[in-house]
Design a protein that fits this description.
- This protein is an alpha+beta fold.
- It has 2 domains: 39 residues, no CATH class; 91 residues, Alpha-Beta Complex (Homing Intron 3 (I-Ppo) Encoded Endonuclease, Chain A), CATH 3.90.75.
- 26% of the residues lie in helices and 26% in strands.
- The strands form 3 sheets. Strands 2-1-3-4 form a 4-stranded antiparallel beta sheet, with no helix packed on it. It has a 3-stranded antiparallel beta sheet with strand order 5-6-7. A two-stranded antiparallel ribbon has the order 8-9.
- It is elongated.
- The termini are far apart.
- The N terminus is likely disordered.
Length: 149
């Protein structure tokens, strides 16, 4: 019987018969641990949250199946940035690598279509510089108003 090995922080904590696994979730690995680039098999788990997670930068990531037409936009771990997926579905095509999705209100997990704007990298940099300068000037104006009072 072929077994999948369950790892937690590179320590083997159990084995599960592969025929008992359904294709959904986290740290079941055949051979090596996920950190050592082993083959990841997903299975039913209490930790599974429907394939939606938040990265350290505050962006929402969605798990994407290999059969999905937007699979080419994934990162190396079969997740896709939700804001890029929303714009791609809205346009009906995959985004190019040079296309950037800008959050108008700067809230990285606010992925409503009205808050997202598609632009080129150079346009996004210009928008960011202008918005940063605008915010700095507004803060300076507020400080000056307080000094005048």
């Amino acid at each position: 019987m072929l077994l999948a090995h369950k790892f937690k922080k590179d320590k083997k904590i159990g084995e599960i018969p592969i025929d008992c696994l359904s294709l959904r979730t986290s740290n079941i690995v055949i051979g090596k641990s996920e950190d050592n680039f082993g083959t990841v098999e997903q299975w039913d788990s209490r930790r599974w949250k429907g394939g939606r997670t938040k990265d350290t930068a505050g962006y929402i990531l969605n798990y994407i199946e290999p059969t999905d037409p937007y699979y080419s936009m994934r990162n190396r771990k079969t997740y896709i940035l939700e804001h890029r997926l929303i714009i791609a579905k809205h346009l009906g095509r995959c985004l190019e690598s040079w296309e950037v999705v800008h959050h108008k209100n700067h809230i990285r997990d606010d992925n409503r279509i009205k808050n997202l704007e598609l632009c080129k990298v150079s346009e996004h940099q210009a928008i960011t510089v202008l918005e940063t300068e605008n915010r700095r000037l507004r803060e300076e104006i507020e400080k000056l108003k307080e000094q005048v009072k």
